[in-house]
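PT: before anyone asks, these are the final sequences, not the draft ones from last week. 226 residues across everything. Please model them as a single complex and drop the result in this thread when it's through.
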Amino acid sequence: QVQLVQSGAEVKKPGASVKVSCKASGYTFTGYYIHWVRQAPGQGLEWMGWINPYSGDTYYAQNFQGRVTMTRDTSISTAYMELSRLKSDDTAVYYCAISSGSYSYFDYWGQGTLVTVSS
Amino acid sequence: DIQMTQSPSTLSASVGDRVTITCRASQSISSWLAWYQQKPGKAPKLLIYKASSLESGVPSRFSGSGSGTEFTLTINSLQPDDFATYFCQQYNSYPRTFGQGTKVEIK
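LR: through. Structure below.
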């Protein structure tokens, strides 16, 4: 069965960077786009961007351009999302999710990673 | 950006009830709408895609309808396992946007 297992919770100081991983199994890693979505406490969901694991191409939401970097390591079927210059309002649960194409819905989601930004 | 507005934000219902959740898009998204269910501390789960297509394995008491800017998710005969938060998402254009969610609570 498809599984997306994310790395554990992180606590970071303002100005620091965080890198969250998403390890995929149960499907062909290069056959699905990986998206990142976040949910701040008590807030809605915010889409951050995607990476095509086959080509390495990325597409970022305007709100995060210049601060987010999405990468992948096909040898271990793992995608990464790094967010830099963290602020307190980056405190959120970060999810990875997969879609069969760049214009498709999210078939499966990871369990989420809580990132807390606090001085 | 396309704004997605869900209503109500909270819904109190009893087991066996029929419940309807509405999602409105700020501009036409054709039928490029998905519905997800999320339980506390868990990953969201896909229920409906392309506005009315039921994801494999999802109980048939869930149904979706609509096109353009108005969409609904209906749960017929609410079951104990259905108490959760539901949210819609458009995938017509970027950035992908979501409704704020509807929490279905036990009455």
